[in-house]
């Protein structure tokens, strides 16, 4: 599903489909009520976390633009081998600084990674083998294709492909397709096309997409960049099958208005066929040009939900506690949506926003209208333009980045460059819930392949101090590539449980059923979590795919 929201129009086009060694509870002081906690993990990652991706090796790759000059991570030697001295030239030479790092969750350390061309405002998706396929960027990087294959031994690095994209992709989005391990890459600044990668044949080109021409708001910086792409599960490919109603209200949702969007969790009870999209936040009409004149218009409070499958497609609107833009939306293991980072006024772009949104919101989609939002514990660190967030296997949410400037600036500005790394700890991950938490989760599968085949049964085993709650849920989560308020490829499925048995010593064995096909769950690595009455386990990695 290809999904873009614009200032005057909201249309959805189905255009081409369009666990781990962690403790059993966060070691933090119990929070007051259910507001959660914040942890400061590192005082500096050295590199702004403009782009963020969790790998199945339990590391997080983050990177910035290479054109921002010196970062906060000075190298002793350039990646091609020559020494970085203390000379005036080397102290300002961009190649003597890291612009990408890999963060190890277990050791809480970062190591530098090499980047050849500039991936500023690029996109990415994980392939079925866990490799991050990353495309686009700025200038020399605008048509480049890069790979990062996680290794777990600190020996892996970025690899730049000799093959290139057909068109320049700056502020584009990408989505993994159900078959053939390929991505669709859509849009970009002054680029009104889509294309597929990796390329199958040398002559493969891009395809014009009229919708991008129609929604280009040139006076406001585009307002159709980083389009929201979501994979539906109904199997319609390679054709536009319907046009959806515009979302009610004024304002815009896509960059530089920069709201956010997710697919709500898919459920085995309807065979994963109810696909509901949610969009929250964004900027008021004219916010981008107003910010250039130092007038920061209030952002949008509205959220819209729409089921995109079936015949009745209607937006259902509600409101967040406060206005928000530049926000990230993270699907939590319990099925709720965490809305985090951002600002209350302005738009995306350098120094274009004010009034940092310091309080995350928790959205519970299954509660009654009017009771779905809850305000969580405030942070003291502003996360503005070029910030990001991603879910970790231990249930925490990693928060990084924020740099509303073209270079690393730490003084005499409204919002300095931010290199501190944080984690938000939801209340249910605290130790006081340990007695209800499924522990020591293991996954057992007897197939010949290392991947669990679609539709096949597999077993999970875990320990519970108490009898299982009647509301036992087994979720599978596809880790996204996150940048500019959009978590590309983020997806959660609630799996079918065939049987559940608990022995007298507290061990529980559940027989689960893998997703039915790649239309529902593209082949790759997922985080499997057991949720017992709203209390999740630590996640373990599982690989779904073909035989």
UniProtKB/TrEMBL annotation:
Listed Gene3D superfamilies: Galactose oxidase/kelch, beta-propeller (2.130.10.80), Immunoglobulins (2.60.40.10)
Membrane spanning stretches: none
InterPro entries per record: Gal_Oxase/kelch_b-propeller, Gal_Oxidase_central_sf, Glyoxal_oxidase_N, GO-like_E_set, Ig-like_fold, Ig_E-set
Alphabetical UniProt keywords: Signal
Signal peptide: 1-25
Highest taxon of the lineage: Eukaryota
Domain Galactose oxidase-like Early set: 449-543
Domain Glyoxal oxidase N-terminal: 50-428
Pfam family, one: Glyoxal_oxid_N
Keyword Lipid biosynthesis: no
Name listed for the protein in its UniProt record: Aldehyde oxidase GLOX-like
Organism: Vigna mungo (Black gram)
């Amino acid at each position: 599903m290809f999904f873009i929201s614009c200032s005057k129009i909201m249309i959805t086009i189905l255009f081409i489909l369009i666990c781990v060694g962690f403790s059993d509870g966060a070691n933090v002081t119990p929070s007051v009520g259910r507001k959660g906690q914040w942890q400061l993990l590192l005082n500096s990652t050295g590199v702004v976390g403009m782009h963020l991706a969790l790998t199945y090796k339990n590391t997080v790759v983050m990177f910035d633009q290479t054109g921002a000059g010196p970062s906060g991570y000075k190298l002793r030697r350039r990646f091609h081998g020559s020494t970085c001295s203390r000379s005036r030239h080397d102290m300002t030479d961009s190649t003597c600084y890291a612009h990408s790092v890999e963060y190890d969750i277990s050791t809480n350390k970062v190591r530098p990674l090499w980047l050849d061309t500039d991936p500023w405002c690029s996109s990415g998706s994980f392939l079925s083998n866990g490799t991050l396929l990353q495309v686009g960027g700025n200038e020399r990087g605008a048509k480049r294709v890069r790979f990062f294959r996680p290794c777990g031994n600190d020996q892996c690095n970025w690899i730049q492909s000799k093959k290139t994209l057909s068109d320049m992709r700056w502020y584009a989005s990408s989505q993994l397709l159900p078959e053939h391990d390929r991505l669709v890459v859509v849009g970009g600044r002054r680029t009104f096309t889509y294309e597929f990668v990796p390329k199958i044949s040398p002559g493969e080109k891009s395809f014009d997409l009229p919708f991008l021409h129609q929604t280009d708001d040139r006076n406001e910086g585009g307002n159709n960049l980083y389009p929201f792409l979501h994979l539906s599960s109904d199997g319609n490919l390679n054709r536009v099958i319907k046009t959806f109603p515009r979302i009610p209200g004024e304002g815009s949702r896509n960059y530089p208005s920069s709201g956010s969007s997710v697919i709500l969790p898919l459920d085995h009870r309807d065979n994963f066929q109810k696909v509901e999209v949610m969009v929250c936040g964004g900027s008021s009409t004219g916010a981008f040009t107003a910010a250039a004149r130092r007038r920061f218009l209030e952002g949008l409070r509205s959220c819209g939900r729409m089921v995109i499958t079936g015949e009745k497609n209607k937006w259902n609107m509600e409101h967040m506690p406060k206005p928000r833009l530049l926000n990230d939306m993270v699907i939590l293991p319990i099925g709720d949506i965490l809305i985090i980072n951002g600002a209350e006024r302005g738009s995306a772009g350098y120094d274009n926003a004010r009034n940092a949104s310091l309080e995350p919101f928790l959205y519970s989609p299954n509660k009654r209208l009017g009771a779905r939002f809850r305000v969580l514990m405030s942070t003291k660190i502003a996360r503005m333009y070029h910030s990001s967030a991603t879910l970790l296997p231990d249930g925490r949410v990693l928060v990084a980045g924020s740099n509303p400037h073209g270079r690393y600036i730490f003084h005499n500005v409204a919002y300095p460059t931010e290199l501190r790394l944080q984690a938000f700890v939801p209340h249910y991950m605290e130790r006081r819930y340990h007695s209800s938490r499924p522990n020591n989760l293991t996954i057992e599968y007897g197939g010949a392949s290392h991947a669990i085949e679609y539709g096949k049964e597999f077993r999970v085993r875990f320990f519970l101090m108490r009898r299982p709650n009647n509301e036992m849920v087994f979720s599978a989560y596809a880790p996204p590539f996150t940048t500019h308020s959009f978590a590309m490829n983020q997806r959660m499925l609630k799996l079918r449980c065939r049987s559940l048995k608990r022995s007298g010593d507290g061990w529980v064995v559940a027989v689960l059923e893998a997703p039915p096909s790649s239309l529902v769950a593209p082949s790759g690595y997922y985080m499997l979590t057991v949720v017992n009455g709203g209390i999740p386990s630590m996640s373990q990695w599982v690989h779904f795919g073909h035989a």
